[in-house]
Write a structure and sequence with these properties.
mainly beta, 7-stranded mixed beta sheet, 4-stranded antiparallel beta sheet, 11 strands
Amino acid sequence: QVRLVESGGGLVQPGGSLRLSCAASGIIFSLYTMGWYRQAPGKQRELVASITSSGNTYYLDSVKGRFTISRDNAKNTVDLQMNSLKPEDTAVYYCNAAQFVRNYWGQGTQVTVSS
């Protein structure tokens, strides 16, 4: 059974930081591209950042320079360090694991940026 469990969301003031973590089980983690998506109310889900099995990264333009994605293949975890948070970063953040036709999602964690 595949499980992706996110943690680390919460309420933070503008300019603050949060670190999201996703723990994976039931997959050969090192073979998967891991990603963080987000979905704000009334908006489509969008890819925020991803990291391939070889360590190549992608970032949404609006988070470049503020967010950093990293993975630990020994621990089967992928993290998203989010700095200089803005109100527009408010969303439910989802962990994703993808390999060819296999695609798995976590349950999501709420991030709210507000004063």
